[in-house]
Amino acid sequence: MRNENRIKERRRDRIRVKLGKIMQCLCSGEQLRGEEMVPSSESLATKDYTHSVYSSQAGEAERKPDTGNIEEAESSLRESGSLNYEEARALLGRYEYQKGNLEAALHVFEGIDIAAVTPKMKITLSIKGETRKRRSQNFATPPMSIHAVSLLFEAIFLKAKSLQALGRYKEAAQSCAVILDIVESSLPAGLPENFGADCKLQETINKAVELLPVLWKLADRPSEAILSYRRALLHLWNLDAQTTAKIQKEFAIFLLYSGDEANPPSLRSQMDGSFVPKNNTEEAILLLMILLRKVTLKRIEWDPSILDHVSYALSISGGLRALANQVEELLPGVIDRKERYHILALCYHGEGDNLSALNLWQKMLKSHEDPTCVPALLFASKICGESSKCAEDGISFAGRAIESLHGRCDQLGGVANCMLGISLSATSRSCVQDSERVKRQSEALKSLEIAERMTRMSDPSIVYHLCLENAEQRKLDTALHYAKCLLKLEGGFNLKEWILLARILSAQKRFLDAETIINAALDQTGKWDQGELLQTKAKLQIAQDLVKEAIETYTQLLAVLQVQRKSFGSGKKQKENKNHHKNLEMETWHDLASIYIRLSQWRDAEICLSKSEAISSFSASRWHTAGLLQEAKGHHNEALKAFVRALDVDPTHVPSIVCKAVVLRRIGSQSPAIVRSLLTEALRLDRMNTSAWYNLGLLYKDEGGASVLEAAECFEAAALLDETAPVQPFR
């Protein structure tokens, strides 16, 4: 045993001596003796590389070659008995690279004729790959040792790193790609397991796979970078799980934020029915979801930024429900429970499932969780403020948010006061007593004014709600002021601002000015977004008794909606738009029917109603319009049936409640108390309904006696509301 060790040690000493001579020869430009080097057609003398390269290193102590270099070279020498010209330069180049002499290292690497040795490397890799795959040694001897291939691959890689450090990114990428080209052409089915594990071959290949897309990005070649990322992930390189995850994450980030739209991947081995991404965002989402699944399976460590990127990607693509599913699949403890609640609530809220979102935020705001979380309090208040049924809770949440802020942030404080004002306004609309309603309206206006002052009129949403509340309370001059400020603040990019301004002007009976505003908005708006503007314009024309012009405007609106209907896709956002435009089309047919009813053109009105029924037969508005048609014809019983059907569809449909009361009063089939209860219910739902006040006044007038005073008050309220009524409700 000792004799064997002595023999091995002597052999290593001889190899080290030989390596030392090679290094001295390469540094001095001399040629090795024939017995120490395999004869080559090329001179081993580095004619183009003289000792002057090292003049800058004068006075510096000579460094010994790296141990890794020697071991790699020893392996090559043991297998072939010598180092050829290319291998020797590879060794010297690495030595210079490690010393930090990048230009010198690059000069050495450029002297290697890669094209000449590439066929040998390909054959060697191919034979080694087949040997490992079949576990047999009955193959021809490769023209090079696997260690020599490893040494040359490392030289190519270090050449790319040198070029990168010198800012020559395109050349660096081209050099790095040579390694992958050789491996792919030699081993098209991928690298066998543990291939090149006994040398640095696998390590060098892994580094080259990682580096190539980075180099193309630095060279400002996004298309090549994307192809390199796909190449790294689709070919079998024997990458470890962490390296693969790193590449997947970097690729997803590049797809999301690079701004360069790539062609969809063409996957040759795609299984039938498999998902193929159609654009950058879908491909990035696929990669990020794979990473989340790896986290769930505990194949990689948790990286919080993955969730950040997938949240952004799914948010911009309308996939919030999918994001919620991904968050729900994460194992407990991966993310904080409060964060999980908050993300899920945001997803459900974005999908329109406000009840689920509110339940999650309420869980989060319990005393043992985080009762002072301001974002959760604001969102909960926002949801509650949209419904009069839970508006009181909205007031509570907004108040807690204001207390939690302690005046630290004016912007958030402004939002909290705005939410408080919205909730107070919602409760005022359901108040039975006038005194309570007026009090809530005053508090709502005060909160919105505080919000406006705290944000210095810089938040369009706050200014909009302040304008809306003033308009609702018929403070039209103040509302007009805020509407004009809002238009300047956002530059007229928001349609609802134009429409609100036109409605305020119509409430001031300035119909021509309102129509001018709508025409200005139409000039600045694309054809597909003109629906609501055209509807408002038609109503303004009706208010001016321009019936013919109104019909033309409605016809134009229907043409736009018809073209839009044919162009809708299948996405969630597209479905929401489709439903919105379907409702708008139904309203348009009902408005046209109402015009023809006024003109006593029964047949045209019936055609409009049939068009509406084809869209949806389950519509309170359609039954209400049908009742108006029957009432105009003098068919009061048929009209009553239509109004009853409208209320079967929607018991809170105020126009149908009022019309039902009017018909009952006219035919005298019910007691005045029932009619009064219907009109009172209508006013409870909509205090600003002029028709309900007027007909309640007629009912009191018919009763005579002490009711005459109440009738006068009702007529006065109706007259006041009629003077300030917009062509469309402000909300």
TrEMBL record:
Region (Disordered): 36-78
InterPro entries: NPG1-like (IPR043376), TPR-like_helical_dom_sf (IPR011990), TPR_rpt (IPR019734)
PROSITE patterns named among the record's database cross-references: TPR
Keywords of the record: TPR repeat
TPR repeats: 620-653
Highest taxon of source: Eukaryota
Annotated signal sequence range: none
Record-given protein name: No pollen germination related 2
Lineage per the UniProt record: Eukaryota, Viridiplantae, Streptophyta, Embryophyta, Tracheophyta
